[in-house]
Design goal:
This protein is mainly beta. The chain folds into two domains: 86 residues, Jelly Rolls (Sandwich); 154 residues, Jelly Rolls, CATH 2.60.120. The protein has one helix and 20 strands. The strands form four sheets. Strands 7, 8, 9, 10, 12, 15, 17 and 20 form an eight-stranded mixed beta sheet that branches. Strands 1, 2, 3, 4, 5 and 6 form a six-stranded antiparallel beta sheet that branches. A four-stranded mixed beta sheet has the order 16-13-14-19, with no helix packed on it. A hairpin with a 2-residue loop joins strand 1 and strand 2. The longest helix has 7 residues. The chain is globular and about 50 Å long. The relative contact order is 0.19. About 7% of the residues have low confidence.
């Protein structure tokens, strides 16, 4: 996947073979000089960073001068450039806490990310978190964010479908369903009805990275609003045209 943008955020999805180095990537050299910090989101396998290995559901924040190397079995990860972060203020890294059950607004389990050592400026639990949704049973609960824009990084193997990205502009228009694989990135704009659902009887896991903060544990004020549920039979199914990681903009 090539570099993409959402506001001031630059991001991509990367796959590294065992022992392969991120600094050998031509795509990375173009941004390295202007990037004060890298955010690493583990999606599948593992990669080795200066703060330790990062696996699925784990996150690290590192200066741009360090190298990221594919683990013993290789690994895939989301890579974000945060220009507003200062590398000098970064902590040792981030890991997610045990998943918290969050069903008041949305049936999911949330992994709260916490700093190891000094906190990384500009990132807190309302900015980035790991989500696990149960295997799909029944209809799809469509929800909307009135202010937030999400960039979602899908965990799991890149060669296998793990779920569906679903979106619709309004109740009056049909909803579409796109197959998603591990390593895919889904962009969700404010005001867009959407959801990500699992398939194959397995939970779906993904990182959510917001362009503004929303405290998901505050049910009254969090910018997650479940509107209605639609049956799978009402979805317009779209075909996937490529095997590698893709970026899907449901806006």
């Amino acid at each position: 996947m090539t570099w993409r943008s959402c506001g001031s955020l630059r991001f991509t999805s990367v796959q590294l073979d065992p022992g392969a180095r991120l600094l050998d990537s031509v795509q990375w050299h173009a941004l390295r000089e202007s990037a004060p910090a890298l955010v690493i989101l583990g999606l599948d396998g593992s990669v080795v960073t200066p703060v330790g290995p990062v696996g699925p559901g784990e996150m690290a924040v590192v200066p741009p001068s360090v190298d990221i190397v594919g683990g013993a079995g290789g690994g895939s990860f989301g890579l974000l450039v945060r220009r507003e972060l200062s590398a000098a203020r970064l902590g040792a890294g981030w890991r997610n806490r045990p998943l918290l059950t969050w069903e008041d607004k949305y049936q999911a389990r949330i992994g709260d990310l916490v700093a190891l050592g000094a906190a990384a400026a500009g990132i807190d639990r309302g900015t980035a978190y790991f989500v696990e949704t149960p295997a799909d049973e029944g209809g799809v609960p469509m929800h909307v964010h009135r202010v937030l824009r999400n960039v979602v990084f899908v965990a799991g193997p890149p060669d296998r479908q793990v779920g569906f990205a679903i979106g619709m502009r309004s109740r009056a228009e049909p909803a579409f369903s796109m197959p998603i694989h591990g390593g895919d990135v889904v962009i969700v704009g404010a005001g867009v009805l959407h959801n990500l659902v699992a398939c194959r009887g397995e939970p779906l896991r993904f990182f959510v990275y917001n362009d503004s903060v929303s405290d998901y544990e505050n049910v009254a004020t969090s910018d997650y609003h479940v509107e209605f549920r639609i049956p799978h039979s009402a979805l317009t199914r779209l075909a996937r045209e490529t095997r590698g990681p893709v970026c899907i903009d449901v806006s």
